[in-house]
Design brief:
Elements lengths: L11 H7 L4 E6 L2 E6 L10 H14 L1 E11 L4 E4 L5 E8 L2 E5 L5 E3 L4 E5 L4 E4 L9 H7 L12 E10 L1 H9 L4 E4 L6 H12 L7 H22 L6 H6 L5 H9 L7 H8 L3 H12 L3 H19 L4 H7 L5 H12 L3 H14 L14
Helix pairs in contact: 1-6, 2-4, 2-8, 5-6, 8-9, 9-10, 12-13
Length: about 375
Amino acid sequence: MALMPVISDQSVEALHMSTPSNCRASVTHGELRVLMSLTPESNTYDTRAMDVLHEHLMRARASGGVFARSVAQPPWGLRLPGSIQLAVHALVRGRMWLWLDGSEPVELAAGDVALVRGGPDHFVAHEPGAMCLVPEQFRVQHADDALAPPQEVHTFLCGAYVLAGDVGRGLLEALPPVLHLPATDGNPLHDAVALISSELTGAAPGQQTVLDRLLDVLLVLSLRACFHSGEHAPRWYRAASDARLAPALNAIHAHAERAWTVTELAAAAGLSRATFARHFQNALGQTPMQYLTDWRMTLARDHLTDGELTLTQIATRTGYASPYAFAAAFRRQHGLPPGQWRRHAVQRSRSHANTDGIHGSTHHD
């Protein structure tokens, strides 16, 4: 399977052709924005929250994603390693149970989606407690199950995402260990699962492009559904839905390089300095300047990990007057100069390469 970004600016044409009727895609300044309603009763969503979520998703930059369609005749079970950073499961036909070691099994019905955060191994099977095979054994054991009558088999999608950078880790940490998203009428998640399953039933021109875009949509919809419930929403997501704070947050994320002051951010929010500072502290648990510094350092770490920019360029993009000022600020935050931190980050990245655990794990029709 090809690797794909979470969202790329080449996604538009395929997304227009493949998204459900209650969805649309638009491009603003070369970036893809996926606009979808969560329920049939709501054809709009809070654009303030989506702008900041969009920024986090763009920065998360999936370094790899793999997805495949499996057909298995009971009894069947699959064990997937905890090294998978974010596993995605969707049931197309039949029933499926999902559980972690020491946790209660969760039953999935057709159309349901489940996200599993990395950590302990997890299991999917036709019934709780079934014997679960490692990916290679599962592939061999069920290689011919697609030939069985449809009513006798279970069809499901399994995949994995690897989200890079601090922003990606932050998104993952906001999720529960297992997030079950039941299918409901009119929910675009159900439409995305159906489209992915349809694409995977046979070869077609441009198929990988369509699959990549649909997988992007599935991930975005899943995260949005999780955060929309409020229980697992990060503080920045909830704050971005607050009309008193959204303009300031959008300003920080759009122009991290600017020498913002609390007074300027308060003016953007249409509040007095004192009122704005109080609301910001209560909502995000830190001052506006602390949030700005943290976001700048997050961007800096991602740029350092990329290795594509010089220290001077990173300093300019993160609001520091010189590479020396940036290096001093970075060292205060991390205890290491930027160059040394980058070398350590590259070593960590190499040590974790090829550990997503999903490659070859499912039988691809």
